[in-house]
Amino acid sequence: MNLAAVSILVAVSIVAIIYLTSSLKLKAFVALFLVSVFLAFTTLPPDTVVNTIKEGFGNTMASIGFLIIFGAMIGITLDRTGATISIANYILSKTGEKRSARAIGITGFITGLPIFCDSGYIILSGLAKSFSARSKVPMAFMATVLATSLYSVHCLIPPHPGALAAAGIMDVNVGNLILAGICFAVPGALAAWLWSSLMVKNRNYPPAEITDEANQRKYEKLPSPVMAFLPVVAPLLLITVKSLIMLVDRDGSSLIYTIFKIPGEPVFALAIGVLLSLFLLRKKDIESVNSVFTEAIEKAGPILIVTAAGGMFGMVIRETGIGEAAGRLMAGTGAGLLVPFLIAALMKTAQGSSTVAIITTASFVLPMLDLLGLDSEWGRILAMLSMGAGSMIISHANDSYFWVVSSFSGLDIKTSLRVYSSSTVAMGIVVFGCVWLSSLFLL
After folding, report:
1. Do 132 and 207 touch, CB atoms closer than 8 A?
2. Which comes out higher in pLDDT, residue 253 or 229?
């Protein structure tokens, strides 16, 4: 089949996913499976179709499965025990009530590292309202600061499913990606902060009208800040230490590398985080522990399935050869990192899911890396971060997270679009700008 026909079929497939999930509200897994089968049978040799679909689904599941499940276990435990509130109250005690927006932003950023953005917002929305009421800060600003701080890490950093699956597709070191992702998520969150503060200025948006008493009443006793931080910080430290050691000891011959080799692996680091989180439980009997594990698996299941289906669709696209052809067209244009950024931004804006956007973009861009001058360790990481920046733009009415933010914060749609949605554009552009500037020194 010629390139023009394949290009049309790939474009039709992407549009079909957007239409099925956005307009017909078909479940993402079903839409991805149907479209993947259609594209595979129309573009690939018939005897390769089944293996391609199975390989795409299975490889993605193998690379992300444990991390998503363990991340969900940590998140559920933090929620059940009130650890997120303990973290927020500790940060608020350091910043003061006048800087409560700063406190909720830092809380969102830290707790968002292992917790998916929608779950994190649901867990912390009560705190955002109480902080808004206590400090008389507009709820539109407080909600956006929380939402974008969670969103910044969700789009850039494993174990969040999009970044994690794309890292597997692009063969990127997860530890290095976490370190780089945190560095670039910070200016993104700050950009959203500044932009949202500009959007609410002189607009007379009201503060929330509740106190935080009801938010804390359901917990008998909050855990200490040290115990609350430990399940989040310990895995990140283990992964970070191993990644830093590998920068110096590339052949892995030193004693310190041997010590951190296993604990520093993301799967085992998060497993250690799970064990530490269990100490937060007031009742440590097997029934309580199993209850946490059951809820986490139920939460992680749909995410695993959709993410693996996205990897399946990406594998089919990769096998069509369209990525290599597009890379040849892009070669010599100097577009470089702009290509993954724009593709992810278009996918995100059109169909709403950051996860689907970044996984599809990774499969599309992988064959182009050499021609775009990005086929190196840093080139792949920066390409990944460019996709993450693109997958932030723009969270609006076709994004389920948009509705979580607007519903749980009590904001009307117009305000959510003006303040929150526009802030996702600002943060995506700023993150990409930082990535591009870094490429001048790293590539």
Report:
1. yes
2. 229
pLDDT of residue 331: 53
Q: How many CB atoms sit inside 10 A of residue 115's CB?
A: 29
Give the pLDDT confidence score for residue 27 in this predicted structure: 82
Res 422 pLDDT > 90: yes
pLDDT band at 124 (very low <50, low <70, confident <90, very high): confident
pLDDT for residue 214: 46
Q: What is the mean pLDDT of residues 106-131?
A: 79
